[in-house]
Each structure stands twice: as C-alpha cells, then as structure tokens.
Amino acid sequence: MNPEEILREVGAQVAVCQACDLHFSRKNAVPGEGNPRSEIMFIGEGPGFHENEQGRPFVGPAGKFLDELLAEAGYKRGEVFIANVVKCRPPGNRDPLPEELTACARYLDRQIETINPFVIVTLGRISMGKFLPNARISEIHGQPAWVHERLIVPMYHPAAALHQPSLKPVVIADFQKLPTAIASAKAAGRITIPESGTVVEEIKHQDENPEQLSLF
C-alpha cells in the first residue's frame, strides 16, 4: 500500500478502536491529517472539544494559533502532517493517562513509520515525553535533538500561549527558528539529550542561553 492508503487504514482503525476508555466519550476520533509525504510532522497531546466535534486535529483556538505559527515558520497546514499522541478526546481536556498513551501508540507509531518525516515537532510536554522522557520543556523548548535518527524539536503547545499571553512571543520565536534549525541539522552537527535532560551539544545557530521558563 502507498502512504495515503496506509494512513486511511489507520484512520479507519482509530474510528472503531476500543483499546482504552476514551472511546466511551468519543464523538469523532481524530487520527490526524496532512501531507502523507511531508518531511515534517507535528504531534500534539490530544483532541479537544472542537476536534472531537469535527474529527480533525487543531481546529479550535489553539489550532488557529498553530496555523499562524506554521506561517511564521514558512509552512502551510496542507504541507505538513498533524496528529496527536492520543486519537480520542480525554474528558475535560485532562492529560492522557499512561494506559491511554500506550493504547494509542501503535497508531501514532505506524503514522510516523509511514510518513517517515525527517523532523518531528512535539507540541506540549506530553508529546515531548514520547521522545524525550527525561527532559523539561521549560529548559529545551525550541532546541532540536536527534532521537533514533530523527530530529525532534520540542515546542510549547499553542494552547499554553493562549492561557499565558506572556509565553506567546517565546512560542513565536521558537517557530521562527524552525527552518534554520532544520537546515542546520541537514547540513551538519547533531545534539543529544542525556538522561539528566540537559542539552550537551547545540547546533551552531542556537542561542547560547535559551530562555528558561517554568510554566510546565
């Protein structure tokens, strides 16, 4: 099967999945959408109210802000692929539970394998934890790291900036640096995140003193 067919198959599986309790409150599953051959994939945390209504990722206020952030980075929504670590809305928009993340991992992993993006941008600490479990988002936001031959760029979730307006300029600045980070990674060096969660080697263009925040 080609990537489009595989992603449609994943979507069909997600729509009837009963692997965790999230299916009880599901109106519409939200498998994800976008370019099946994109070199960049954005992964959020989970569907909210609007996403549950429409079956599409990031269509509420945070989604509108994400569209603006994509434009800041020189992308359009249709050029990238957008998904979440869980495909059904957690009640009250709470954080996904470990067993829910585990139940949904097979779908997300197959999407990543199929799309095979060079870069994965995680949106929020929950999705960041899938790739950088020992890191703190307040310390490494906007700083790329290589994980299993893929460039992971942890970003704050767009909703965080809507809830805390002082964070908005930081989020915008991180997205503005994304194209340069990707180009630099393709051309040369890598950075790694040790178990302590501290960045030990930075791509040359990155700021030496990244802004430290303690929202999460």
Report on this structure.
The chain has nine helices and six strands, in the order H-E-E-H-H-E-H-E-H-H-E-E-H-H-H. It has 216 residues and is an alpha/beta fold. The protein has one domain: 3-Layer(aba) Sandwich (Uracil-DNA Glycosylase, subunit E), CATH 3.40.470.10. The chain has a six-stranded mixed β-sheet with strand order 1-3-2-4-6-5, sandwiched between helices. Helix 1 packs antiparallel against helix 4. The N and C termini lie far apart (41 Å). The C terminus is likely disordered.
Question: Secondary-structure blueprint of this entry?
Answer:
Layout (H helix, E strand, L loop, with lengths): L2 H13 L17 E2 L5 E5 L4 H6 L6 H12 L8 E4 L13 H18 L3 E5 L1 H7 L5 H4 L4 E3 L2 E6 L2 H6 L4 H9 L1 H10 L29
Parallel strand pairs: 2-3, 2-4, 4-6
Antiparallel strand pairs: 1-3, 5-6
Helix pairs in contact: 1-4
User: What does the average pLDDT come to?
Assistant: 87
What overall form do the CA principal axes indicate? globular
Largest sheet: 6 strands, mixed
The third-level CATH topology is: Uracil-DNA Glycosylase, subunit E
Strand order in space, largest sheet = 1-3-2-4-6-5
Whole-angstrom Rg:
16 Å
- The structural domain count equals 1
Query: How many β-strand stretches?
Result: 6
Number of helices: 9
Assigned CATH class: Alpha Beta
Order of helices and strands: HEEHHEHEHHEEHHH
The poorly predicted ranges are 189-216
Tell me the helix content. Answer: 25-40%
What is the CATH homology-level superfamily?
Uracil-DNA glycosylase-like domain
Distance between the termini: 41 Å
Question: Which CATH-level-2 architecture?
Answer: 3-Layer(aba) Sandwich
The fraction of residues in strands falls at 5-15%
